[in-house]
Design brief:
The protein is α+β, with helices and mostly antiparallel strands. The chain has a single domain, classed as Ribosomal Protein L30, Chain: A, CATH 3.30.1390.20. Helix content is 32%, strand content 15%. It is built from five helices and five strands; from the N terminus they run βαβαβααββα. Strands 4-2-1-3-5 form a five-stranded mixed β-sheet. The chain is globular. It starts with 6 loop residues before the first strand and ends with a helix.
Length: 141
């Protein structure tokens, strides 16, 4: 399976109340300690993929595109040259190697979340939303 790894944007949607201890620990390992925090992870890494899958009921995630990544880094004041952003998307370098501090603190989305207790496929905000994550990030900038 030579699947090309993609850069996932993972945003914490739900808070800390009534979170099972194992999921709280997984969210801490992903560095998602507060609501509206965003981290960039490589989907090709099996460890990260498993952690995101485990806490899918507390986060929303999807593949970030180049335009949104550029806007995100510019809006949050991260100084990264163009080639570095490309290598980040292609999986050549990690955010830590480019000295991008994670998590990135985001504003709540304009017009709010769709609902924080339902999956994205059921009209809510939680879980996998593929390319639609870019629209959510644009609303949060």
């Amino acid at each position: 399976m030579a699947e090309k790894s993609k850069l996932l944007a993972v945003i914490r949607v739900r808070g800390r109340v009534k979170v099972r201890q194992s999921i709280a620990e997984t969210l801490n390992r992903l560095n998602l300690k507060r609501v509206n925090n965003l981290v960039l992870v490589d989907s090709g890494n099996a460890s990260y993929a498993g952690m995101v899958k485990k806490c899918k009921d507390f986060v929303t995630f999807g593949e970030i595109n180049k335009e949104t990544l550029d806007k995100l880094l510019a809006a949050k004041g991260v100084k990264v040259e163009q080639a570095a952003a490309d290598s980040l998307l292609s999986g050549g370098k990690s955010p830590k190697e480019l000295k991008i501090d994670m998590p990135i603190r985001m504003h709540p989305p304009r017009r709010g979340y769709e609902g924080i207790k339902d999956a994205y496929t059921n009209g809510g905000s939680l879980g996998y939303r593929s390319e639609e994550i870019n629209k959510l990030i644009a609303r949060m900038l």
